[in-house]
Design goal:
The chain has 353 residues and is an alpha/beta fold. Helix content is 39%, strand content 17%. The longest helix has 21 residues.
Amino acid sequence: MLNLASDNVVGASKPVLEALIAANDGAENSYGSDQFSTRAEEMLAEIFEHEVKVFLVSTGTGANALALSALSPPWGAIFCHEESHVIDDECGAPEMFTDGAKLVGIAGVAGKITPEALERTLTRYPKGVIKAVQPAALSISQVTEAGTLYSLDEIAALGATAKKHGLFYHLDGARFGNALVSLGCTAAEMTWKSGVNVVSFGATKNGCLACEAVIFFDPKQAETFAFRRKRSGHTVSKGRLLGAQMVGYLESNHWIDNARHANAMAEKLANGLATTPGAHLPWPTEANEVFAILPAKVHTALAKADIKAAPWASLSLPPNIHVREGEAFWRFVTSFATRTEDIDHVIAVAHGA
């Protein structure tokens, strides 16, 4: 089976595994006070060009939920896209770890929200009204759930709106490397220079075994986080095994190389599917996810060839694009492990349907 339903379906990359095996020898301090975790924080500070407080966790859900718990009180409102990962795919973890904060979904084409939409939504949550949850934070996904990207100007514009209304600003970077490669910018430009306060820095989808980082640019905002992480069960006793993964991931720009390859495979696939008779892509492929509306016969041919993709919801489609009868909306995700011949095979099957 060729599984392109997600970039979670592949294992860890060789440099990450080698770093993990090397760190396994001998004894080390526990609970994150080890040399590998320290080195990971130093490397991330260099990458982000800023003083940072870094907390390693083993899952993206843990990273997002705990990050938001540091930004919102239980009576707070966290604004995000209506199809964002934090609202649709975390099984209520953000609500649980914030002790009840409300996630407020905002509609937007291609998985993105605009400052204007955020402004309109904020009018429904006036500050100081006791019967209403209070505006606390904004969370965006980069890459979005539609595989699209916020430009640096768009991130900064949302950051300005958040600052205007006293909101903390969180970036869910499960595919951070893929976004960075596509935009051709620095990590600093995509985050704190655009007003972002906290980043969920994803590594698992791009080569790690199980490792994510919550990154704060203001140490004061991180003062309670060590307790939050411990209370949630995400303080790993053998923390060096998280730190070693992150070091192996970041060394020699391995994470950038992985993301660049995944993005290139997605671009190749998008070009092939775009020329498939009867198929159309609702928006450009900007990272490592390809979204395509396919005729039933194409999907049937892919299924018979044991090629797997993920069916997708159509809420974010542009208003002039619809999934018609006999069509289906699918997501294909490439990774650092996707081979050129894999993509050639998918395109050949689609064109031959």
